[in-house]
Amino acid sequence: MGRYIIKRLLITIPIILAVSIIIFSLLYITPGDPAQMILGTTATTEELASYREYLGIDRPFLVQLGDYLYRLFIKWDLGDSWVSQMNIMHEIKLRLPRTFAISLYSILAGAVCGIPLGVMAAVHQDGKADRFVLVLSSVMHCVPGYVIAMVLVVIFALKLRWLPAYGIGGIKFYILPCLCILLGSFSGMARSMRSSMLEVIRSDFVMAAKAQGFSKRTVYYRHALPNALIPIITQIGGQFANALGGTMILETIFSIPGMGLYITGAINSRDIPIVTSSVIFLA
Questions:
Q1: The pTM is what?
Q2: Which of 36, 47, 179, 248 could link 43 by a cystine bridge, Cβ 3.0 to 4.6 Å?
Q3: Which long-range CB contacts under 8 A does 34-41 form with residues at least 24 apart?
Q4: pLDDT per residue as tens digits for the range 2-12
């Protein structure tokens, strides 16, 4: 186990390095002049040239990339924002816990809802419960997250006035964003749990347990369920990683000052240090 963990950690190093190079290269070739966007249209040619030199973006690509990788991996310095001049590491420390909390609560709630539904569908295969779960999960899987978000805002914030539509504060500000991710994650969880449970139910050891006279409840929930949960636990980890990246749109819709809103604002203003640093953290 120790060797496996060390191996996985070592593999992470070239992955992060590759992500760093790719995101820096993409932002380099993306159209737009950061100096022009920061100083505005009233800046003179001399002011723009001076500010490009100050930012270091007037140098060749390889020189900029080498300096960026040196600061990141040797000096462990994410730098400051080009627009706000605030320290990026400090901003990430404030925003990352909010994004992390939304993703974690959503995936855990999705597992709590999706796993029982998947088990129920497998146990009652081809029955009404099975068809209900399949139809519900298919519909929720097809609906985009931003559509769910707008519907929830209209119902619970504008019509019923039970929950706030935007901002950050107490636990009630997290309910709508978490519910959006939950509705998307539980559908995939339910379908995967159904497939895994059906596969285990058809296995030899379950057939042997039935032949020994155990009740269906004992066979399904004591023998089959623990084995069916193994691939689902792995899937939960993958869905959590996807949720971290998927909160970008939701944080913009709900105006939550997390990593998603931070990256979106930086992309719009061509604040390259924020974008590169945030993407590396999420990776």
A1: 0.75
A2: 47
A3: 34/82, 34/269, 34/270, 34/271, 34/272, 37/269, 37/270, 38/82, 38/83, 38/269, 38/270
A4: 787 788 778 88
